TrEMBL record, chain A:
Residues 1-30 are annotated as: Disordered. It comes from Cellulomonas persica. PROSITE patterns: ABC_TM1. This is Maltose/maltodextrin transport system permease protein. InterPro entries: MalF_N, MalF_P2_sf, MetI-like, MetI-like_sf, TM_PBP2_N. Part of the ABC transporter complex MalEFGK involved in maltose/maltodextrin import. Probably responsible for the translocation of the substrate across the membrane.
TrEMBL record, chain B:
CDD domains: TM_PBP2. Keywords: Cell membrane, Membrane, Sugar transport, Transmembrane, Transmembrane helix, Transport. One of its GO terms (biological process) is maltodextrin transmembrane transport. InterPro entries: BP-dep_ABC_trans_perm (IPR050901), MetI-like (IPR000515), MetI-like_sf (IPR035906). This is Sugar ABC transporter permease. One of its GO terms (cellular component) is plasma membrane. Residues 90-288 form the ABC transmembrane type-1 domain.
């Protein structure tokens, strides 16, 4: 696109000049001189985005999220440059969508790859510094013979609990997140805080009601976790608790001051003693290819994983095959002009595809219920067939329901493809004496495949990750026994990822991400091979 | 069906000339069974739908109680949906899907316009890159999306976990996707002479975009918007990962919670909710049928 910079008289061009008006070419006039309505809208919008981004930068600095700070600064610069420079015509139109694509598709894809190489998950959620603070805080005990402080329990304006004590004649207030700090405006009576502005002193009833919360509350003495915290056991007296663990930054060791055991960081992101015992929590570390090999190296998982792996392929292949065969068959059957009301018949047969898949899957789940489902009770006269609870029948049911859901799509697609095959081809084949079956095999199918094959590849890729169907219909069950993650006979890889990440008790984001990457590589390779064969990518 | 030229002469011959026994016998042999196939297929397709409609009308229905179709008919389940928060879910779904659809159309169309009309550095690469970005579907990245939103919550609570806006933003990540290609192809069919003429008349690129191009392609914008609506309406996985509190759920997550345990599930309520949620989508789908197939042909898949 050529940049037209011929700026012509200062007056504003009418949006729709009369036809035939031969005005000189005029492109983006300088915005500084041309305060059109559009420019003002742009100014306000970009200003708004700048404000939000600035707010985000400040907040992100406050919570020390440096990656977000960096991204926001770049985004801020990019937005302002794109919309106020005259040399960035295409960027003006591409940027909004690109930002979303960058954050929610490209970044998440890269982040998945990154997490796949870490042990991110429950017990390894954060950095080493956070883990050290958490270990110190979790191993606190009341310091022997330490002073008892008459404790005042308050709630602040947000309703959060706060503790107030008087130490050396100085009133101190703190909450779970804010360490003890002097409160000079507190009212103190006989070494006890009785009132504090913007806070409410909890009465006896309120204390009794929130007893557990109060006993669990830990108000840090200072920002350093090693200084211990103020806690209470009876909601009346406060004591300073200090950690039995001691962290030595120079030697990078954690020492239990009671037992004398020394813990050193291991390469799994945990402090470990010589006897192998570890302290929770740990922190995130790079674990190399552990997550990728885990499915094979963990013996309790291996059999289940291999079955899930094979079943995923079988499910995706069979889904494509069954829906395609049925769809093609119906398309051929109803492509005969002698059949009346074809439009109506087609509309009725497309219904299953029109309904959101999650609804159909849930309805089928009810209908296939062993004891009280419609299929067993009504259609099969009270049979007790375990459609969804027997490993093989459940697989059959999944394929069957997916056939119900998916055949209309293939039906539509094949009908379209059949109708685009020119009639002359058939005529000449018949002239040459070809029988119907022969015509089907040698003419219809090859021509059909040209347009349908890419869709079969896409359908395979989609079904490979058909999470909703599996999760809604069987939930992956019936479950394997004794596996360290909750997976079952009908789980496919993507539903296994979900289970590993969220539903197996211990959340293992690293392992889940590694499985996602494996899926991506497999689906990507198969799709690439498939599309190459169908020469689809070259059409671009 | 206009392209049936191959069989049309045969039909003309049989109906007009030989109205006799041969024709009847031939009809029985070659056509009648097709109606039988149609009958079987339609029963298979429609029976589950009748079942769920019947269950939705069966008051207080459990799974067992729903088996006798249309034994009792009452609107009780529909009235009870409110107590379960169903209308909140539907409202959430409508808000999320509508905003996503509008955003997708605006951003997708803008990108398609840029690719179609401007010749800038990296244009070809951009198109290829856009295609490649589709290789890693968002469903695969849901763990990373969860972790990203977990972190974002500290900076922009409105974009973090358990926020509808956060979910919308995730969906908008897919705005530059298959739909852009659909629109790109369509934009290319709008003659460039129109732009040139407008430029001659002093229109800026913005004026050309908003007042000429978008007006010319309104139908495809509507289609892309509705397709995006249908696909985000049907999304379960990402909505389930992002939304946590029950009043933030979308219909998909909410209905799943109603039907999760089929023994104790309020089956009648679920069925009523399913009917309400499905009807508009089915109508929309029927209306958009040929475009949906077109969109699928372009590589997208209904989710």
């Amino acid at each position: 696109m050529s940049q037209q910079t011929i700026v012509h008289d200062s007056e504003h061009a009418p949006p729709e000049p009369p036809p035939g008006d031969e005005r000189p070419v005029r492109g983006d006039s300088s915005p500084a001189r041309d305060f059109s309505k559009g420019f003002l809208v742009k100014l306000v919008l970009v200003g708004l985005i700048d404000a939000i981004a600035l707010y985000g930068i400040l907040t992100a600095i406050a919570v020390e999220q440096w990656a977000i700070v960096g991204f926001l600064v770049l985004a801020l610069v990019a937005v302002n440059w794109a919309y106020f420079s005259r040399r960035t015509l295409a960027a003006k139109y591409l940027l909004p969508g690109l930002v979303f694509l960058l954050v929610y598709v490209i970044f998440t894809a890269c982040y998945t790859a990154y997490v796949a190489f870490t042990n991110y998950g429950d017990g390894h959620n954060s950095t080493k510094d956070d883990a050290i603070s958490a270990i110190l805080a979790q191993n606190e005990q009341r310091v022997e013979g330490s002073q008892a402080y008459p404790l005042t329990i308050l709630t602040d304006s947000d309703g959060d609990l706060a503790f107030a004590i008087v130490r050396d004649g100085q009133a101190l207030v703190g909450t779970q997140d804010d360490p003890l700090a002097p409160a000079d405006d507190a009212t103190v009576e006989s070494d006890k805080v009785t009132a504090l502005p913007e806070h409410e002193v909890l009465g006896f009833a309120a204390v009794a009601q929130r007893q557990q919360e109060i006993v669990d509350l830990r108000v840090p003495v200072s920002d350093d976790a090693a200084d211990g915290s103020l806690r209470t056991q009876d909601a009346a007296t406060g004591y300073i608790f200090e950690s039995v663990m001691e962290y030595d930054p120079a030697a990078d060791t954690m020492t239990n001051t009671q037992t004398g055991v020394v813990y050193r960081p291991n390469d799994q992101g945990q402090f470990a003693a010589e006897d192998g015992s570890t302290i929770a929590p740990g922190w995130r570390v790079n674990v190399g290819f552990d997550n990728f090999t885990r499915a094979f190296s963990d013996e309790r998982l291996r059999t289940a994983f291999v079955e899930i792996f094979l079943w995923t392929f079988a499910f995706a292949l069979l889904s494509v095959l069954t829906t395609f065969v049925l769809g093609l068959f119906l398309a051929v059957v109803f492509n005969d002009p002698r059949v009346r009301a074809r439009k109506l018949l087609r509309a009725l047969m497309i219904l299953p595809y029109a309904i959101p898949a999650f609804i159909s899957a849930l309805v089928w789940k009810g209908m296939l219920n062993t004891g009280s489902g419609f299929l067993n009770q009504v259609l099969l006269g009270g049979a007790e067939i375990p459609w969804l609870t027997d490993p093989w029948l459940a697989k059959l049911s999944v394929i069957g329901v997916n056939l119900w859901l998916g055949f209309p799509y293939m039906f539509i697609v094949c009908t379209g493809a059949l109708q685009s095959i020119p009639g002359e081809v058939y005529e000449s084949a018949r002239m040459d004496g070809a029988k119907p079956w022969r015509i089907m095999r040698s003419i219809t199918l090859p021509l059909l495949m040209v347009s349908v094959a890419p869709l079969l590849v896409a359908s395979f890729a989609f079904n490979f990750n058909n999470f909703a169907l599996i999760y809604m219909l069987t939930g992956g069950g019936p479950n394997f026994v004794g596996t360290p993650v909750v997976v079952g006979h009908t789980d496919i890889l993507i539903s296994m990822v979900y289970s590993v990440a969220f539903e197996s008790g211990l959340k293992q984001y690293g392992f889940a991400s590694a499985l996602s990457i494996l899926i991506f590589i497999m689906v990507g390779a198969i799709s690439w091979w498939g599309f190459r064969r169908t020469r689809r990518l070259e059409e671009l | 069906m206009t392209t049936q030229t191959a069989q049309a002469p045969a039909k003309a011959a049989s109906t007009n000339v030989r109205r006799n026994g041969t024709f009847t016998r031939r009809w029985w042999r070659e056509v009648s069974w097709r109606y039988l196939v149609a009958l079987v297929m339609i029963v298979i397709c429609v029976l589950p739908l009748l079942y769920v409609i019947s269950a939705s009308l069966n008051p207080g229905g459990s799974l067992v109680g729903s088996n006798r179709l249309f034994r009792t008919v009452s609107g009780e389940n529909f009235a009870d949906l409110e107590a379960r928060g169903f209308w909140t879910w539907l409202g959430n779904s409508l808000v999320v899907c509508t905003v996503t659809a509008i955003g997708t159309v605006l951003m997708g169309a803008a990108a398609a316009y840029a690719f179609s009309r401007f010749r800038f550095k990296g244009r070809e690469k951009g198109l290829t890159g856009l295609l490649l970005a589709q290789m890693f579907p968002q469903t695969l990245a849901f763990v990373a999306i969860f972790l990203l939103l977990l972190t974002l919550k500290d900076v922009f609570p409105a974009l973090g976990l358990d926020s509808l806006l956060g979910l919308i933003f995730v969906y908008l990540g897919g705005a530059l996707g298959v739909n852009t290609f659909l629109m790109y192809g369509f934009f290319n069919t709008v003659p460039r002479e129109l732009d040139e003429a407008a430029k001659m008349d002093g229109a800026t690129h913005g004026q050309i975009y908003w007042t000429i191009i978008l007006r010319m392609v309104t139908p495809i914008l509507a289609v892309v918007g509705l397709l995006s609506f249908i696909s985000s309406f049907g999304d379960f996985l990402i909505a389930k990962v992002v939304l946590q509190r029950a009043d933030n759920w979308t219909v998909a997550v909410g209905l799943y919670s109603l039907a999760a345990d089929e023994r104790t599930a309020p089956w009648g309520l679920f069925a009523a909710g399913a009917v309400i949620a499905a009807v508009p989508v089915v109508l929309l789908f029927m209306f958009l049928q040929k475009y949906i197939v077109g969109g699928l042909t372009a590589g997208s898949v209904k989710g």
